[in-house]
Automatic annotation (TrEMBL):
It comes from the Eukaryota. It comes from Adineta steineri. Keywords: Membrane, Transmembrane, Transmembrane helix. This is G-protein coupled receptors family 1 profile domain-containing protein. The chain crosses the membrane at residues 17-38, 50-73, 93-116, 128-147, 167-186, 207-229, 249-272. The keyword rRNA-binding does not apply.
């Protein structure tokens, strides 16, 4: 009796709950993308290095949500499966572009004579973006080699190798690099405040610090999403062959499915956490909306 209840729960989750989560994820992602495009292209933000990186990350997010996440919602109707390389490359590129924003924030806090401060130059933006595209492509090359176009629950041909590489690149390496630059940025900010006697500078520095706080929040939330995914993936990978009962297998499948469907919210959060954590972002967004409504009112 317990087995049938567990299986019914799994079926209900798979057919009713997960598709709703996917649809909500895509809708929120689309709204957030429109909000990011509208805000980051405002005159006072469009030439800011950090905003350029986050705008590019948002563009990659909506591409990923459109060609990988939305088709999984329509899979039963159209029998369409995404490409493993796209599923690995695009999320990794999005996080790497967000990583560039925290690197830019770190460079802002470095001394003017530091080599890192040169990364703030506008001419470095396309070079760094191209470098991240290449790095993401190289780190994702294992996916089409070891993966296939079957659903995640069916696994991959070389499941253990694929799982270990996936966990390492997406669940360990990226969060570690993110946390390193967050700590370096925090250290530089503290040292800078100590040098000026604890006084808070106005103008450019205040604007910069608001965006640094926003970026740090974004990358920390990214690390949290990645770590929860890594923990579940690791648990499933190393315990799948030890399963002895159907209940254990179904529980593992439920955890695996939920983790994979929650992880794409990594590609949704940018707009919403920017609104919550950055006064400059909120003011720019509201000011842009007022301009649009005032023009419509005049016409």
């Amino acid at each position: 009796m317990q087995r049938s209840i567990s299986y019914d729960t799994f079926t209900f989750l798979l057919t009713e709950i997960l598709p709703i989560i996917i649809l909500i994820c895509f809708i929120l992602g689309l709204i957030g993308f429109i909000g990011n495009i509208f805000t980051f292209l405002q005159p006072n933000l469009r030439w800011n290095n950090c905003c350029i990186y986050m705008l590019c990350s948002s563009i990659v997010d909506i591409i990923h949500l459109t060609i990988n996440i939305l088709p999984s919602y329509l899979r039963d109707k159209y029998s369409f499966f995404g490409l493993p390389w796209n599923s690995s490359f695009l999320p990794q590129l999005s996080i790497n572009l967000l990583l560039l924003s925290i690197i830019d924030g770190y460079a802002c806090t470095c001394a003017l004579t530091s080599w890192a401060h040169r990364l703030n130059q506008l001419k470095m933006v396309p070079r760094l973006i191209l470098m991240m595209i290449c790095i993401s492509g190289i780190f994702s090359i294992y996916s089409p080699i070891l993966g296939n176009d079957q659903p995640a629950s069916c696994g991959y041909g070389e499941q253990n190798i694929y799982g270990i590489l996936n966990i390492f690149f997406n669940g360990i390496l990226q969060p570690i690099v993110i946390l390193i630059f967050v700590l370096l940025t925090y250290r530089n900010i503290r040292q800078s405040r100590q040098r000026v006697g604890g006084m808070v500078k106005s103008g450019v520095n205040r604007f910069r610090n608001q965006f640094i706080v926003m970026i740090i929040t974004q990358v920390l939330i990214t690390a949290i999403f990645s770590l929860q995914w890594m923990i579940v993936q690791t648990y499933v990978l190393f315990n799948l062959r030890r399963v002895k009962t159907l209940d254990d297998l179904l529980l593992m499948a439920i955890l695996f499915a939920l983790s994979n469907k929650i992880y794409p919210f990594n590609n949704v959060k940018l707009f919403y956490f920017s609104i919550l954590t950055s006064k400059s972002y909120r003011q720019t967004f509201v000011k842009g909306l007022k301009k649009i409504f005032s023009r419509q009112w005049v016409h």
